[in-house]
Amino acid sequence: MAIGELKIMTGSANPELATEICNHLGCELTPCLTDTFSDGEIRVEIGSNVRGADVFVVQPTCAPVNFHLMELSIMLDALKRASVGRVTAVVPYYGYARQDRKVAPRAPITAKLVSDFLTVAGIDRLVTVDLHAGQIQGFFNLPVDNLYAAPALLDPLRKYDSKDLVIVSPDAGGVERARAYAKRLGAGLAIIDKRRDCPNQAKAMHVIGDVKGKTAIVVDDMIDTAGTICAGAKVLVENGAKEVLACATHPVLSGPAVERLENSLYKEVFVTNSIPLKDNAKSCSKIKAISLASLLGKAIHNIHTESSVSVLFV
């Protein structure tokens, strides 16, 4: 089947990122009205012809997650009813990804429910970045490209001498991610052993690995309330780290997160624009946002031209 014209659309979740992607690809955003009716229901109207087109909808399902998820689904339905050729949802941040398995009796697997939701709404393909749980790709019966933000986040870290660097995983589950960063930077590896007592709260216990006299970089997929990552910085300094930085793909930054980071022992905190920064995060002296537009633009170009996407997984 011949591939139609490339078109990029966006909802209200992160139009700035969509605009950056278009600038990278040298194209214009396809007009799409996203609004609400007086009763709060979502209104979507596509502003140009998309018949037979290869459409990419940029919409992270970040807070308010239910609104943005529903808005994305309505956009997908509108595109299908407008006889789109192929539609790819570009969801840099996949909401509900932490609910990927049953953690208690009678608990839902919401990440799977979201995959069903998007599939029924009409996606042909999904592009996302640093899924919290990689197995979510298997929840879909269609192609899923889970890109890594490491190429973008590694750039500001290369100024540090690799001999003085140690990459730190904030928990055992993130070791694979931390090891990938350590390998790329030629740095050492350490792990923070922690015990989680209840949701959004964790107690850092001790450090496995040598961080004494080194610049420690804590690597994670997201920062939510920042309780875990700030406790990790304290433990690293107590174990002799000379300075501490953090890298995280998704700046969820809920509750007191920004205040905690501002008052933390971190020198700098690098995040991406998978989620737009809140106003108080923009004014935080320690938070530095790095754009994913180039990475996502390359992925969109390769998918549209039927080229390899795996070349981006390096």
Based on the model shown, name its key terms:
nucleotide biosynthesis, 29% helix, single chain, Rossmann fold, magnesium, Rib-P_diPkinase_bac, seven-stranded mixed beta sheet, 2 domains, 314 residues, magnesium ion binding, 9 helices
Q: What can you see in these coordinates?
A:
It is a single chain. The chain is α/β, with parallel strands linked by helices and 314 residues long. The protein has two domains: 6-147, Rossmann fold; 151-290, Rossmann fold (3-Layer(aba) Sandwich). The chain has nine helices and 14 strands. The chain has helices spanning 15-25, 65-81, 110-121, 150-154, 175-185, 227-238, 257-262, 279-282, 293-304, and strands spanning 6-10, 32-36, 42-46, 54-58, 86-91, 125-129, 144-147, 165-169, 188-198, 201-208, 215-223, 243-251, 266-272, 287-290. β11, α6 (227-238) and β12 (243-251) form a beta-alpha-beta unit. The two termini are 30 Å apart. The mean pLDDT is 94.
Offer a concise description of the structure.
This protein has 314 residues and is an alpha/beta fold. It contains nine helices and 14 strands.
Q: What structural class should be given to the helix and strand makeup?
A: alpha/beta
Helix content: 25-40%
Text of the CATH class of the largest domain: Alpha Beta
CATH topology of the largest domain: Rossmann fold
Number of helices: 9
**How much of the polypeptide forms β-strand, as a percent range?**
25-35%
Compressed to H and E, one letter per element, the order equals: EHEEEHEHEEHEHEEEHEHEHEH
Uncertain segments are none
Main sheet characteristics:
7 strands, mixed
CATH architecture of the largest domain: 3-Layer(aba) Sandwich
Averaged pLDDT, please? 94
List how many beta strands DSSP finds: 14
The total domain count is 2
Main-sheet strand order equals: 10-9-8-11-12-13-14
Radius of gyration in whole Å, from Cα?
20 Å
Large-scale geometry: globular
The separation of the N and C termini measures 30 Å
